[in-house]
Amino acid sequence: MELRKYIEKNKGRIIDNLKEILAIPSISTLPNHKDDIRKCAEWLEKYMKDIGLDNVQSFKTLGNPVVYGEKIVSENVPTVLVYGHYDVQPAEPISEWTNPPFEPTIKDNKIFSRGSADDKGQFMIHLAAAEYYLKNEKKIPINIKFFIEGEEEVGSSNLPKFITDHKDLLKADYALISDSHMLAENKPAIDYGLRGLAYFEIEVTGPKQDVHSGLYGGAIQNPINALALIISKLKDENGKILIPGIYDKVRKVGKEEREMIRQHLTEEDVKKETGVKQTYGEEKYHLAERVGARPSLDIHGIWGGFAGEGAKTIIPSKAGCKVSIRIVPDLKVKEVEEMFLSYIDNITPNGVEVKVKLLNGGEAYLLDFRKPIMQGASKVLKEVFGNEPVFLLSGGSIPITEVIKTNLGIDTVLMGFGLPDDNLHGPNEKMNLNQILKGIEASVKFIQEMTK
Amino acid sequence: MELRKYIEKNKGRIIDNLKEILAIPSISTLPNHKDDIRKCAEWLEKYMKDIGLDNVQSFKTLGNPVVYGEKIVSENVPTVLVYGHYDVQPAEPISEWTNPPFEPTIKDNKIFSRGSADDKGQFMIHLAAAEYYLKNEKKIPINIKFFIEGEEEVGSSNLPKFITDHKDLLKADYALISDSHMLAENKPAIDYGLRGLAYFEIEVTGPKQDVHSGLYGGAIQNPINALALIISKLKDENGKILIPGIYDKVRKVGKEEREMIRQHLTEEDVKKETGVKQTYGEEKYHLAERVGARPSLDIHGIWGGFAGEGAKTIIPSKAGCKVSIRIVPDLKVKEVEEMFLSYIDNITPNGVEVKVKLLNGGEAYLLDFRKPIMQGASKVLKEVFGNEPVFLLSGGSIPITEVIKTNLGIDTVLMGFGLPDDNLHGPNEKMNLNQILKGIEASVKFIQEMTK
């Protein structure tokens, strides 16, 4: 059956499969979802077997299992290694979802569910493409290997060991990852750069317990005020990070490259997608460069004292926050950790104690967009989506790309099918069904393209 | 029966009464405790009737009821107006209590419960003293009026109207309040000054919902970072408040007065009571002056973004905090509100919207400690506790003192029986039983003293 007809005929079943895996709340950041993680890995194993992959197995790690499946047809054709992650972010604040986050709901031809775009909906595209070859065509023109992990949202800390332990199994010519997004429905994109991430938790301790703010206000340091003071010294008001050394290895973006990337993230895009009235950041750099080629620092959560309704007059005993720094290529997580710890130590005000812990980290990635494999991917996306794709520097992090490069020696093509308004990590995450169906078409064609 | 014998014989019953009222979680700051507030007011009404007070009634207000009771014996003796509050602070963090906060538990001759010292345990002392006169002596030498309110912990916002509406009912020569503490078991104290309070909530809004910190980090302002920046500009690192005008009306403490107050709050006291390794604040001023005669500013709670276990990489949509300023006599809450709002407006960084709301406020109070009524109180406390009491500038707030002065034209004697380690507003609040029993003795004697 011809490809488009096949997709049209099978789309109901394809979306039903996706709904099944989306309904499993495989949240890796919350320890009480261990069982869902296991269920999700088992579901994937079964699915891989169903579509005709061989050697399907779930590999134990110190954390969550990695699910593997392959189809090896010949030593004389290229091998592609497809990576994805079946774990998802927490769904909080749940009250802001219009449907329950783990009851996938289709509305306006979009599927709403935590994980729909990040990343279940995206790796399922390539599994559907493999199924097309294996079930419809009865043959696949290249060797294909899938490895889908369950710890991406917690920093993939056990994946490097898995990769070094299974170099032969994972041997390939290219890696392929769909965990990013296009610019619009008719504007495909290929990421050629990703930022790394160093994620910390800070805890500030003052009095041994909450004390009366009248009796001690003015006499002892307040842990929340102290934490705010620390945070205020991490960036200046224009978004420049104040941690010494953090800009040392930042790559200078050339004029041509800057011209290319600046077309693809405008002031208007950011305002529309986030709802802010004005953008923010280092004035000397275009938004696309701030997000793609410069480090950034954000507080993800903060807590301390009394947050209920009404008024409670205490100096709290403790306060804390979660903070990450997105880092650029060449600056390693280890270096950032040292810089950060030493800087926090320097700026800690008197009268409180501060503990800082690296929760997870991942390195940045950069791949020359002029390489033939990137140009091949570009050709396929143009065929399917009607327009030449743009090459982007993404501000997000897919640390596995750097781990694959270092350990398997291969480049990764980052071909995302999401859209900018998919609400990744936020409430009402969604993926457009059309993106999924066109994604399958692109994946099938890219597999063909790789034979060249 | 002689006073001490009476107390010894009746103490079991007195403590049992206290346990009953402490067991009612009359938390005024949390709206879901309205029913407990009502129960507590009813309990008090019944108790006042039981001990023989007349004209007992519960006055409705726009908020929680005020419970009133009196014994009028003659026009030719002085009248004392006893104030107290039956509402309490929330008990969070409940996990840090060694017994449930509303299951009063006696250990080491101390009663542990929310409200034990602030303020149920203290106003119950004066009710027990009235009972001694009415039941044991069959007569009371002065007129006594009790009015016990239920909104002190939320700023007593309906009390000024209650007082102006009931000036004749409340007419008296002196007011008496026990809602403060002594310096140690043998070191009685009388507060002659109290700070006022202006309590605000700040809310900062950025993107319309939580967004991915990789995709937008560096391009939009983060509400938590913005809030931290705002907080960092409220005080400098030494605790000096940066809001223009906040020090304009601060009274200069004279040399003699400074010498008096500085003996009663030492570095070691503060370290011992709060567990901090070092104190903090304006270096030019002694700790006692920082707490008693200078304004202070504290964040009581902060929230925003993801505070669960693990790592979530978002730029949150909102962040907020609760903050109060303790103010000194002559500077009014209204003035502080204007200063604060205008200053916050000035320091709000680009890219976020900030809302500030005054949650409650109360004025400061000051009374010359050389007045005869103060010296009479001092004499009584010396008799009961064995040492001359000290006159203190408290850092806490009892805004009713200023309301009473303005509306009823009378001075308030602040004779507290708590101790510095009572953990007011914190977990494991307690009151020493011995303080309660000696407090009753002091109250009985002070009533006698007022006839002079």
Polypeptide structure, described:
The structure is a homodimer of 452-residue chains. The first copy, chain A, contains 14 helices and 18 strands. The first copy, chain A, has 452 residues and is an alpha+beta fold. Chain A has two domains: 3-194 and 364-449, Zn peptidases (Aminopeptidase), CATH 3.40.630; 196-250 and 295-361, Alpha-Beta Plaits (2-Layer Sandwich). In chain A, the strands form four sheets. In chain A, strands 1, 2, 3, 6, 7, 8, 15, 16 and 17 form a nine-stranded mixed beta sheet that branches. In chain A, β1 and β2 (66-71) form a beta hairpin. Chain A is globular, with a radius of gyration of 23 Å. The model of chain A has no long low-confidence stretch (mean pLDDT 95). The interface between A and B is large, with 106 and 106 residues.
Number of strands of chain A: 18
| Percentage of residues in strands of chain A | 15-25%
Structural class of chain A: alpha+beta
Helix content of chain A: 25-40%
Low-pLDDT parts of chain A are none
By CATH, the architecture of the largest domain in chain A is named 3-Layer(aba) Sandwich
Oligomer state of the chains in this structure? homodimer
Distance between the termini of chain A: 23 Å
- Can you tell me the CATH superfamily of the largest domain in chain A? Zn peptidases
Main sheet characteristics of chain A: 9 strands, mixed
> What is the count of DSSP helices of chain A, taking H or I runs of 4+ residues?
14
Briefly, what CATH class of the largest domain in chain A? Answer: Alpha Beta
In CATH, the topology of the largest domain in chain A is named Aminopeptidase
Mean pLDDT of chain A: 95
User: How large is the radius of gyration of chain A?
Assistant: 23 Å
Biggest interface and its residues per chain? A-B, 106 and 106 residues
What's the shape of chain A? globular
> What is the domain tally of chain A?
2
